[in-house]
Design goal:
The complex is a heterodimer of chains A (about 325) and B (about 725). Chain A has helices spanning about 1-20, 140, 260-275, 285-305, and strands spanning about 30-35, 40-45, 50-55, 60-70, 80-100, 110-115, 125, 150, 175-185, 195-210, 215-220, 225, 240-245, 250-260, 280, 310-314. Chain A has an eight-stranded antiparallel beta barrel with strand order 4-5-8-11-10-9-13-14. A two-stranded antiparallel sheet of chain A has the order 6-16. With about 325 residues, chain A is α+β, with helices and mostly antiparallel strands. In chain B, helix 3 runs antiparallel to helix 4 and helix 27 packs across helix 28. Chain B has about 725 residues and is mainly alpha-helical. The radius of gyration of chain B is 28 Å and the shape is globular. Classes of the chains: A alpha+beta (about 325), B mainly alpha (about 725).
């Protein structure tokens, strides 16, 4: 349940990006100024001006328990497993560069204050390697560490290792997962009942096995589909299910319960760390960077356009 | 879509004529309207419908709306020429070809599949799609043009509509191999929790989706494709019946058994003395001390679990690998169930497609589906004898299971062409049987427990008395329910206070003499859901507004245009969760909806001058001399006339006109008022007499809407 709450709040955070492409870039109050080689600016009708800035990116792996509770082709994994989520977090913020009404605000982060809820300080981005979606802009995701699964006991892996060398010993081997499904407590669109539902599938997921460390490292993700347009976190859910074939050509299913609470606590810590970092203007250049900048600009305008509660930008 | 209530606005009782004029109705006033009136339990005489009555019934059952005034006129013409048989033959075929029929059946199927029956979004974001829908999906059906939703633009609903429109075999619900996938580059299913078609079929039909597709894509699979099975392999079906790693497609399997084999597979009655952990183990046999471990043999050994799991799991296996989208490979499974004679059927299948095919070959399928169509057109409350059921199945085969051909047969049966015997079962017994049905659903596979809804329970008066005693004990009807052992603690169902009181009262009445009669409950159908909205919209054609820009510009509030949302009190629709009607009985909120929205529709029409134009058209010949209504100024002058200055004759002509417009011709009057009025003159007189004196001072512009509102509040308008 907690996972679903956190997940949904994440989606809300990302929502403005999701919708950004389809909506107008300009509202009555604000205009985006894009000049190649220059920082992206937003200009308010009252003359105030802010530019987009970016902090250093923090890359790290965060470990969480990953409890196996089902294996239709054998025993469940008897000893604990840890899933190490590869994270990359960058903070983007709009910083005032003109503020005639209150010059003290210059150099400070733009804040949107709602009457009914806390301040909104856009944005921090969370990126996990491997999922091809708009949030995984290459500009951001180039140094994201790959996910890893490490279990204290690796016997369970034996029937799923895809190849061996001539001596029968494992070589560069992969666990090849046909379908990776993530479940989350969500409302049924027809009945409005909350229930556990599969929210997305990843196909043809390869985990590379390292016999020395007995770890599995996320190596490849084929296609992905989901009921949400964007999902950067393949492990955010109440249940993760793998459907894969064992070496006897038997279709097997392994189900895991990730401890995402721990993961999200870590997110919060990293976000706090990011706020203390110095940021620099994000210059409007480079293909991947441009895509991202355009989305951030649009999302700001879009956010303001779609806000249905009174707010103050300061 | 019809909902079953007795006397919504019952200022009318058995003793008073059903004329209700609500002077300046208020919301509070409606809340005070008493609910349904219990009847005396006697069967009224079964009579044939008049021709107009049959036409009305035909139209409402097939199209969901009453006939137009022009259709009644055509009938009158046919009567004059002794051509009624041909008229009805042609008219029923016309109705069956209409988009109204397609949409009515689409709504019925939505309800049967426990899907939402109403729309929430318009098509403004989908211009291309809207255009295509108007051409291919909508036909002349006006309602959906404006309120198409993402849910309606689904492959599943396209499949429903195609089967109905093309008069295909009913089996195609399960067997169809071609789909229309709606695609929009700008769309998102973020709000719906369902996959888009292109994602759903991605793994098996990637190459069939052109890049940048926008609008729709038609997919065609091989006739023997074992992965594909009509509605079962559509995104909307998967979204309604989701799968999880624990559920193992049992939800989908259960839906399939319920819908196609009439096996409701309700919760089994577990022994209440078991602790929660034991119960959980039975339901989820893999579970053990909080961790799920696979235990392959429990399903096969525990009697309580076995009742359902021996059927569910083999069918569930055919969905394996298809949790969110279709698996690229077919999954083997089996169709397993027991026949009524306890013979076990076990048919291995290669995949969902093969499973669907096997289902359509079972006699239980034929029996179930013919009963379903009977229930829709005749009524689940109208008994279907074994012989009639066999005849029905035989006809189904003769018609090659083509849906509209079979409907044609049903609407020509004596059960359809006669006036429904009116309410025969008293309200208390109806309530008790509703409760007992739920008991039956759990106990039905326990051979030593008879059904509780066929009275006398157990087949004899002695046994019935004995069962009443047992029921009293297990439900603790003599106490406050605290000592009840049924429903079992783990059941989600609890007797409500009203249910308990009804049972207590019923048991009390049984003590002296057990009621031996198996009462036949005949429910009255009332217009509800989209049918009611369509009917109002057809009668008060506000959406033909002069700028022809549709509903968005009309003055009717949105809650009057959507049957299933919260503000319209989910008017006469079933809950997608339970499949049961949201309102079993009339509710003040529904009455308020009708009052508010009826007025809104009438006012919108008046604002658009449509009624006044009709007045001009229809009344000009009547009043030409007096008012010269061919000129608009004169018409306005007419509308400004006070009611009480009109001659009684003109008053009567006007009321008769509107009565005929809304309720139907004079011939029908006896049918729709259950014989209380046999001619228009008497009816109009009665209505005029009910106009309060204070209202007779009003001018026609003010009074006509009141009269119209009064008429649409009549059982005669609402009931069929």
């Amino acid at each position: 349940m907690t996972a679903s709450l956190i997940f949904c709040s994440l989606l809300l955070l990302l929502n403005s990006f999701i919708w950004g492409q389809e909506k107008k870039e300009q509202s009555a109050d604000v205009q985006i100024i894009k000049e190649l080689g220059q920082p992206l600016h937003v200009v308010w009708s009252d003359g105030r001006e802010a530019q987009l800035e970016i902090t250093e990116t923090l890359n790290q792996r965060v470990a969480m328990e990953f409890e196996n509770f089902e294996n239709t082709c054998g025993d469940t994994i008897s000893k604990p497993c840890q899933y190490h989520v590869g994270l990359s977090m960058t903070l983007f913020r709009w910083v005032w560069i003109k503020y005639q009404q209150n010059p003290e605000r210059i150099g400070k982060t733009l804040e949107i204050q709602f009457e009914e809820k806390g301040d909104f300080n856009p944005y921090s981005l969370l990126v996990q390697k491997g999922i091809l979606n708009r949030m995984n802009n290459e500009f951001l995701s180039q140094n994201v560490p790959s996910d890893q699964l490490i279990c204290e006991n690796s016997d369970w892996l034996e029937p799923f290792l895809a190849s061996r060398d001539l001596t029968g010993a494992p070589k560069a081997v992969f666990v090849k997962i046909g379908t990776w499904s993530t479940e989350l407590m969500l409302q049924n669109p027809e009945t409005d009942e909350n229930e556990n539902r599969t929210i997305f599938n990843l196909f043809d997921v390869h985990l590379a096995y390292d016999p020395m460390s007995k770890s599995l490292t996320l190596d490849r993700i084929g296609d992905s589909i989901g009921v949400f347009p964007v999902n950067s976190f393949i492990i955010v859910g109440d249940v993760i299910q793998w459907n894969l074939e064992n070496t006897s050509s038997q279709q097997c299913s392994l189900a895991f319960k990730p401890n995402v609470d721990k993961l999200f606590r870590k997110f919060e810590n990293i976000a706090t760390d990011l706020k203390s970092l110095k940021s620099v203007a994000m210059v409007y250049e480079g293909e991947e960077k441009l895509k991202l900048i355009n989305e951030l600009g649009r999302s700001m305008v879009d956010f303001l356009n779609s806000a249905n509660k009174p707010y103050e930008v300061r | 879509m019809a909902f079953c209530i007795v006397h919504i606005f019952t200022a009318c009782t058995n003793n008073s004529k059903p004329i209700v004029l609500l002077p300046a109705p208020t919301k509070n006033g409606v809340d005070k309207v008493p609910p349904s009136v219990p009847t005396n339990g006697t069967l009224s005489k079964v009579t044939s419908l008049s021709d107009s009555g049959y036409l009305r019934k035909l139209s409402l059952h097939i199209r969901g709306v009453p006939p137009s005034i022009f259709e009644y006129q055509a009938l009158e013409e046919a009567q004059k020429n002794n051509d009624t048989a041909l008229f009805f033959k042609n008219t029923s075929q016309e109705y069956l070809k209409s988009s109204y029929h397609v949409e009515k059946m689409n709504n019925r199927l939505n309800e049967y599949f426990r899907l939402r029956t109403d729309s929430y979004y318009n098509t403004t974001d989908w211009p291309v799609l809207k255009e295509e829908l108007e051409k291919d999906e909508i036909g002349e059906f006006p309602y959906i043009t404006y309120v198409q939703s993402h849910l309606h633009k689904s492959s599943l609903n396209h499949l429903f509509r195609t089967i109905i429109r093309e008069n295909e075999s009913w089996d195609q619900l399960l067997l169809k191999k071609d789909y229309r996938i709606f695609v929009s580059q700008n769309s998102s299913n973020f709000n719906f929790g369902a996959l888009e078609g292109k994602d759903f079929y991605y793994s098996i039909a990637k190459s069939q989706f052109p890049p940048n597709a926008n609008g729709f894509v038609n997919l065609q699979f091989d006739a023997n494709d074992a992965r594909i099975a009509g509605v079962l392999t559509t995104p909307r079906f998967f979204a309604r019946y989701p799968n999880t790693s624990v559920n193992k497609n049992r939800k989908r399997a259960a839906a399939l058994f319920r819908m196609f084999l009439c096996d409701s597979m309700d919760t089994v009655a577990l022994d209440a003395s078991q602790n929660e952990e034991q119960i959980l183990k039975k339901i989820f046999p893999e579970r053990s001390s909080g961790n799920l471990v696979v235990s392959k043999d429990r399903h096969g050994h525990d009697a309580a679990c076995l009742k359902c799991h021996y059927k569910l799991d083999p069918v569930g296996m055919t969905f394996a690998g298809s949790s969110l989208s279709l698996s690229p490979t077919a999954s083997r499974g089996s169709l397993v169930f027991k026949r009524l004679d306890s013979q076990k059927v076990e048919l291995p299948v290669e995949g969902l497609g093969a499973l669907a095919h096997k289902i359509t070959q079972q006699p239980e399928y034929t029996q179930c589906q013919t009963q379903l169509l009977w229930n829709w057109f005749i009524g689940s409350d109208s008994p279907l004898s074994q012989k009639d059921s066999l005849d029905l199945q035989s006809q189904f085969e003769k018609d090659k299971r083509r849906v509209n051909d079979f409907i044609t047969y049903i609407v020509n049966t004596p059960q359809f062409t006669s006036r429904s015997p009116l309410v025969s079962e008293n309200e208390l017994e109806r309530k008790v049987k509703t409760i007992f049905k739920r008991c039956d659903s759990c106990h039905k596979e326990e051979k030593n427990i008879p059904t509780f809804v066929d009275w006398p329970i157990g087949g004899s008066e002695t046994l019935m008395k004995s069962y009443i005693k047992k029921i009293t004990k297990v439900l603790d009807l003599k106490g406050n329910g605290n000592a009840a052992t049924m429903p079992p603690p783990q059941s989600s169902w609890r007797l409500s206070k009203q249910e308990r009181e009804a049972l207590q009262l019923w048991v009390e009445k049984q003590t002296d003499s057990v009621v031996m009669h198996a009462f036949k409950s005949v429910q009255l159908r009332y217009l509800g859901g989209p049918d009611l909205i369509l009917t109002l919209a057809n009668k008060f054609s506000f959406w033909k507004s002069k700028n022809n820009e549709g509903l968005e510009k009309a003055d009717v509030p949105s809650y009057c245009r959507f049957a299933a949302n919260e503000t319209s009190s989910k008017l006469g629709v079933s809950s997608p969760k339970t499949g049961r009607p949201i309102h079993e009985n009339p509710s003040p909120s529904m009455a308020r909806w009708l009052l508010d929205c009826g007025r809104a529709y009438i006012e919108a029409d008046f604002k658009n001058s449509l009624l006044t134009e009709q007045l001009s058209h229809y009344f000009a010949p009547h009043f030409q001399k007096q008012f010269q209504l061919n000129q608009k100024e004169k018409l306005n002058a007419f509308l400004n006339q006070r009611w009480n200055v009109l001659t009684p004759d003109i008053q009567k002509q006007m009321v008769s006109y509107w009565t005929e417009y809304l309720l139907g011709p004079e011939e029908l009057l006896s049918d729709v008022t259950q014989g209380q009025f046999i001619n228009m003159s008497e009816f109009s007189d009665a209505l005029i007499r009910k106009i309060p004196h204070s209202m007779t001072q009003l001018n026609l512009k003010e009074l006509i809407p009141q009269i119209l509102l009064t008429l649409i509040m009549q059982d005669a308008f609402l009931q069929y």
